Amino acid sequence: MNAFFASVEQQANPELRGKPIAVVGGSERTVITTSSYEARAKGVKTGMAVWEGKRVCPELIIVVGDNRKYTYTSSKINEIFRDYTPEVEAFSIDESWLDITHSLGIFGSAETIAYLIKARIRHSFGITCSIGIAPNKLLAKLASDMKKPDGLTIIAPDDVLRVLERMPINELCGIGKKMQRHLNMMSIHTCGELGRCEEARLTSKFGITGSRLKQMGQGIDHSTVIQFGEEAAVKSVGHSRTLERDIDDPAEIRHFLLQLSEMVGSRARKYNVSGKTIHLYVRYADFFSSWGKQTTLKNYINQSDDIYRASLSIIDTVKLEQPVRLLGVSLSNLKHHAEQLPLFGVERKKLFATQAMDKINDRFGSMAVTYGSLLPEKESAGSHVIPPSWRPDGIRSVDVK
Predict the structure, then answer these.
(1) How much is the pLDDT for 102?
(2) Radius of gyration over every alpha carbon of the chain, rounded to an integer in angstroms
(3) Splitting the chain (401 residues) into consecutive groups of 10 residues, what average pLDDT does each group show?
(4) Are 370 and 356 in contact (CB under 8 A)?
(5) Regarding beta strands 21-24 and 290-301, do their DSSP bridges make them parallel or antiparallel, or are they unpaired?
(6) What is the pTM of this model?
């Protein structure tokens, strides 16, 4: 999708159309998550602080993101994809892979399918997307980024080496800034150079990843589209939150730990998983200092108060060096299981109460029923940025704000 959050906001509010806007996460100090093409033309980039965006574009309009609109739109767009193939893999909230190998006999060509999808998205939502067509996932992702906005790029099998010859290595999905620096130090700057590099030289530097890097430079990718229901088992369930202001009050820290524990527990219960390991992550006010600690319990848990108590047991062992900027709680060492009634009456009552609360929240929205200390007016203290792991379906489909 093209400038997805910003495009959705411009369609939702006609007064924003044609104007430079930047979408932020709700907190005063969250960065710009995306900007409209009008803003990008003025130099506004994703990841900028709001004041930086305002400096390069004084007329920039700041819009607090509405994640429910984005997740709803993303889910509906993925439903459109499934009208053309069941083999759809959501890569993120605004990107998906489609394997249309078995759909060509119905629709005629990949290009026809692409134009049908683009037309339906524009008609249904008033927004645009860029599509890449190629022999594999790696090249399709590359092609989709080559023409924006509203582009369509086809990389035919016979054109792969020509396209990659002068392509910078950082354009390939999976080669980040750190990997790019290491490859540049080896005098490898283009995909063509990477594909011609001796495999032994790459494996001596990067281990088994070196073989994968050489294949990437040659445009080779054997990975398949993993549709919903076929994903590898999730290894952890977690949430983190950047706070609107730095906090050092133990009561406030406990408040946010309880909030995060409820978010983690609710999602774990929804997908019928329990875990034995609780991990707590803290980032300090200076942004650069952080730590993470974990504890492993004797029994598997998914009740929010059990997760909360385990988180407290961790933070109580640490003397905080600075005020806290970000908190994160995760549950790992998971097992999937069928629900069974606890042996003791008190535990059964607790389970029934939790199940009732979860059903109400599923129907009326997260935190419709919650702990008394998590009143709605206190909930705004954290920024609401969609996690990169979000997916339209399954356990990663978190209930966002």
Answers:
(1) 94
(2) 23
(3) 96 96 78 94 92 95 92 95 95 94 95 98 97 98 96 97 97 94 97 97 94 97 84 78 86 92 88 92 87 94 92 93 92 77 65 73 66 56 56 59 52
(4) no
(5) unpaired
(6) 0.72
Burial class (CB in 10 A: 0-12, 13-18, 19+), 218: middle
Report which of 335, 338, 285, 275 is spatially closest to residue 307, judged by C-alpha positions: 275
Strands 88-92, 61-64: pairing kind: unpaired
- On whether the CB atoms of residues 27 and 242 are closer than 8 A, the answer is yes
236-396 architecture in CATH?
2-Layer Sandwich (3.30)
Contact (CB, 8 A) for 217 and 197: yes
Q: Which fold has domain 4-65?
A: MutS, DNA mismatch repair protein, domain I (3.40.1170)
Q: Report the interhelical angle of 67-81 vs 4-12 (nearest 10°).
A: 110
For residues 252-266, one letter each, b for 16 or more C-beta atoms within 10 angstroms of the residue's C-beta and e for the rest, the string is: ebebbbbbbbbbbbb
- Strand pairing partners for 185? none
Structure confidence at residue 380 (pLDDT): 46
Among candidate residues 120, 182, 114, the one with its CA nearest the CA of residue 153: 114
Catalytic positions, please?
95
Domain boundaries, the chain: 4-65, 236-396
